[in-house]
Please model this.
Amino acid sequence: MKKVSQSEFTLLELLIVIAVIGILLTLLTPSLRSAKVSAMTGVSMSNLNHIYKGTMTYASQNGGWMCLASNNPDHSGNDKPNWRVLIYESIQGENMSSEKGARKEEMENGGYRDIMYCPITLKHRGGYPAAHGEGRGHYGLNKYFGTTPDNSNSENSSSPGYKHISFAALNNEYEPFLMPTRKSGTGQRNTSGHNLGGGSYGADDDGKRSRPSYLYPRVRSMACMLDGSMSMKSVSWGAQHHSKLNDDMNFK
Model:
């Protein structure tokens, strides 16, 4: 009869080792997942910080004026860029192509994606959307920086909330300047609106693109204020401000 060497595992011992490894993996998986989400949240907050600094750079280069949220006339072609393109150019220190096809290629292969898309939103929505010459992304600029009603892009518009804005004229107290936004309806679910709707901070799934994205840990979003300060915001915060502001934008 063959004797079992003391250095060899018996079948029972092998099963015990496998069971212990399985238990350890079960215990460690939530911690590893949480660490990964925390890291992605940190990347998103870094993106928001870069974008904020880009807006300040743009304003300093343009006499204190902020670009429009959309339909900026600074480029030629059919796709007039929204704010993301102009702010990204300020961050990089050079202009993207004025030709929409070439600009789309730059967005797909350059650093634009790294800054303008949130890793948590990408994971949730299944990857990047198709590039667009206007400038897609996951972060929204407050609706106050919108276009004029007649799309004239005039800083002399008399309609509050739809004109070029000088930062020196603003006195914001509690409404965010920048936030991650979402599109909860059908269609391009992995894109977000370029505007953060003024007063629309609730989490209702109403199909709009202007609501904050509450995909971060503990069902939170993040907000960058006009002074550059950043913090996480809860759904209850959003509900409170949604009721409080209700499109009566605080940027005055």
